[in-house]
Amino acid sequence: MTPQKSQFPILITFLLLICVSLSRGQQHTWQEAFKALGIAWNPDGTLERTIQIPMVDPTPDADTKPAPTALSQDIQLNYKSKAYIRLYIPINPPKNKKLPLIIYFHGGDFVLFSASTVIFHNFCNDIASQFPAVVVSVEYRLAPENRGRDPWMEYADFSRVFLLGSSAGANIAYHVALRALDFDISPLQIKGLMLNQAYFGGVQRTQSEIRLKDDPYVALYVNDVLWSLALPKNLNRDHEFCNPISGGTYLGRVFRLPKVYIKGDFGDPLVDRSILLAQFLQQCNVRLYYRFNQGGFHGIELQNTTAAQQLYNDMRFFVNDMYENLNSEDLSHHQVIRLPSDDDKSFI
Length: 348
Known about the structure:
By secondary structure, the chain is α/β, with parallel strands linked by helices. It has one domain: Rossmann fold (3-Layer(aba) Sandwich), CATH 3.40.50. Helix content is 22%, strand content 19%. The chain contains seven helices and ten strands. It has helices at residues 30-37, 118-130, 168-180, 207-211, 220-230, 271-283, 305-319, and strands spanning 39-41, 47-49, 70-78, 83-90, 99-105, 134-139, 156-166, 190-196, 259-265, 288-293. An eight-stranded mixed β-sheet has the order 3-4-6-5-7-8-9-10, sandwiched between helices. Strands 1-2 form a two-stranded antiparallel sheet. It is globular. Mean pLDDT is 79; it is low at 1-25 and 337-348. Residues 1-25 form the signal peptide. GO terms for molecular function: hydrolase activity.
């Protein structure tokens, strides 16, 4: 298979990184990073985004041509801010059984893309169809500009809510889960958290960041610039929004998290950040299940159908409490932090 608004807290915005060809073995500038990302400053401090990945409309009817994988519709949350969600259900939802509710935060390095971007739309279609599940894809506000119940929701089991994010969306999902612990969000009950290639960082470089510093998808110098756009001004990459184990206001809540699934690929420069988070969650006695694949790259599930199917299967097992195909052993033997050297350069 080709991988294709109940109110809820929306945090600051971070994003997934796009495929760019980058030169090797030299110092880089802001201007080079902006060019690689297809962004430029406007006079009013907003960004002009010139690289466009197609956006698609929802498919609320099963008789749409070509035939949709799942049904979808957009629901306006706030007409003033134009905030909305894209809601997905299977084409033939069960009549006498409630489905898990998956709240999805798309990737894009906090700076790019939308819930309607075709790669994320297809991803949610596949999840709604294959789990099956009701999926809510959040259209969140992008950096740096921004530092009602629907009949379809009757299919959702509000006592089985799962937060799902890819890349920057995984960062958002993690912080949403932590913030939600301090609020009464009934009837919603968050039962699990799924983090796919989470977009985290830190001042101190990891081995994977150095080993893959010229990666065509997540080059280190582009990564630094993106964090400088996404984080509050005058703060570095050890702020809790970037580095979830550096301290901050959320650490005391971590032990209260529900079960967590983490997926990473050793060909992704960000993989060590997911390992560090997994180690930290294990130390906090959070129920953790994970998969770290050899090879791969950032966003592999958006281009490789085999990788996408593996991810769908893992998440379906996780949601349905079937863990025989997921790892849960201790990760403390993984050493991922590399001490900084004179060759390590940072834009913030």
